[in-house]
Amino acid sequence: MGAGVNERRAGQPNQKKKRQRLYVKRPGGQFYNYRQWVGYGLLVFLLAAPFIKIGGNPFLMFNIVERKFSIFGNIFYPQDLHIFVFGMLIIMVCIVLFTAVFGRVWCGWTCPQTIFMELVFRRIEYWIEGDWTQQRKLDEGPNTDAKAWKKLLKHTIFLAISFVISNIFLAYIIGVDALFRIMTDPVEQHIGGFVSIVIFTLLFYGVFAYVREIVCTTICPYGRLQGVLLDEQSMTVAYNEKRGEPRGKLRKGETDGDNGDCIDCNLCVQVCPTGIDIRNGIQMECVSCTACIDACDAVMEKIDKPKRLIGFYTLGEIEGKGEFKRNKTRQVIYTAILVFLIGIFGYMIFSRSEIGGSLLRATGSTYQIRPDGTVSNLYTLELMNKSGHEIDFELVPEDPDLQLQLVNKIHKLTKDGSAKMSFFLIGKRENVQSYKTKVSVHVISEGKVVEKLKTTFIAPPGS
Ligand code: SF4
Ligand code: SF4
What distance in Å separates the CA atoms of residue 380 and residue 360, rounded to the nearest whole number? Predict the structure, then answer.
């Protein structure tokens, strides 16, 4: 049976060394309909997100070049590294927990590679070249004008879509305003940007026109991690071997005798975008796209057998470990941890200060005794505007007994701007209790404390 499958998928089984194109039957069914809703919804989000602005900032932007990121309209700079590191940790924990509970559902349902491949590029291919048998016939047939036109049309559309994806991808990195400048200014002013668009266009075209399922089965590290992330409680797309075997063809007018429910029609294999036979057991190449569930359900309906010969099962269930029971509590706990972690990350993003700053005592200085008998310390302060808009501010010491005297008077931070300032903190000598006192300086904007900066105030004790 295996050889038959390979012949069907690859077209020319004798040339084993050369990678051959995989012909995938057009999928359809209940899960595919759900998948389209999810996929097209995410596609709209993916295409629209760089163009949406909140408070003048992009909804999402990951500007690695300028080390500036925007998440839900909140701008992050290298100073916010701790939030990013925490965000990355949360993403990693989420991946591990999500995969342990739901298997590789991310790959088949929400990964941009799958969404673009299955819901955009593959559909265009069906539209131009027909279903999988017609595609193979076309490839193996003589080189005619009709074939050349079909290929030209397909690859032109693939290139055009790759160009759009490349621009959207760049908009996520440099922001949509910079992208518009690349598009509208003379090419020589943005050679780097122009070259990037060309390179990304060719890269996406190569991935969606040729590399395809290899991304999921060989290149993507998440797929390769699966083996260590799944355990016997993990849900995954699987074939119910106990019910299906021994498989056997069902001929007209015959009963299935001692055979299992699988009639060996191969439809589950034909619709698989990674070219595997799910009846051979759990495989790393399976992206949980559910196309085989739909295909098999349709067959079971036709032969009047219960659906879900292929379905979502835990590894424990399909490996038939005696009285194996699904542990729903674990799924609930893992999901709760996921929600909790995402909540913390959301809090960190939205509670972040609009102004970042670092406050240091002026290099080499201790304290100064002033002619009026007060004592002062000199500080240097660097403030950075992270709000995405212009900000007016003032500096106020937390301790009302201290006075703040600016050396260079700055009260405004431009959008994305920073300011270096120096100031004195001045206190009465009789108020000084110890040589080093912990003090705070508040940065106040629109009547609210937007940043608290801590430092120390030095003065001779008991004076
Ligand atoms: S085995 Fe089924 S779920 Fe897995 S990739 Fe193939 S069609 Fe999709
Ligand atoms: S679609 Fe169902 S019946 Fe047909 S080969 Fe696959 S498992 Fe067997």
Answer: 5
